Amino acid sequence: MFLGVNSVSEKLSCYVQIVDDFWPGLDMLCPFCQNPLISSNKSNKSLVVALSICQHRMHLTCLNSILNNQPYSNQWMYIQCPICMKVYGEKRGNQPPGAMKWTYLNRSLPGYGSTRTIQITYEISSGIQGEEHPHPGRPYYALGFPRICYLPDTEKGRRVLSLLSKAFERRLVFTVRLSITTGNEDVVAWNGIIHKTDFDTRMHHGFLDECIEQLSAHGVV
């Protein structure tokens, strides 16, 4: 799969620009292969491209290799800059099938006065890993489900809920990997987006902003 060769990759072509000029000392190494962007060996020339917004540079061959290894490259693709983590296109994850539901409680989280609470329930069952997972054909284990989380029913809390719903639809809230807490392989684990799982513990200052920032890092805005 290479940029611009079909309708899926063509959508990403607008985010990539071929670099004709080059300033010594600027982005000298490709962030993927760590080799010089401009080789002194004339027989080893590789096109250099820049991403349209962040302007970070890399070898086109390295970028194509990364895209070719994405699990859904025949359906949708995205570019995530390896330097600043800016997402171009729509990022999709490997979260197993499941459901996200929410309801409203007439109870207030600590520090939120008389504000209602949004209760989110995630439901995922154990199953068999697909091609997008670390070990296709092996079981994955959904331990500790259903998982229940909480948000304040405020303007910002509702914004986080909307973003989490979008992230869940894109299979980004959970992933299948080695568990950091237990050391077990092939478990369904959180995917770098913080959640409040204890009702009675007060959220730290900036919790909702941190959640929004982590969602943005996955391209969910």
UniProtKB/TrEMBL annotation:
Classification via SUPFAM superfamilies: RING/U-box (SSF57850)
Family: Belongs to the Deltex family.
Protein name: E3 ubiquitin-protein ligase
Taxonomic superkingdom: Eukaryota
Keyword terms, alphabetized: Cytoplasm, Metal-binding, Transferase, Zinc, Zinc-finger
Gene Ontology biological process terms from the UniProt entry: Notch signaling pathway; protein ubiquitination
Organism name: Aphis craccivora
Subcellular location: Cytoplasm
Lineage of source species: Eukaryota, Metazoa, Ecdysozoa, Arthropoda, Hexapoda
Listed pathway(s): Protein modification; protein ubiquitination
Reactions catalysed according to its record: S-ubiquitinyl-[E2 ubiquitin-conjugating enzyme]-L-cysteine + [acceptor protein]-L-lysine = [E2 ubiquitin-conjugating enzyme]-L-cysteine + N(6)-ubiquitinyl-[acceptor protein]-L-lysine
Listed transmembrane segments: none
Pfam families hit by this protein: DTC (PF18102)
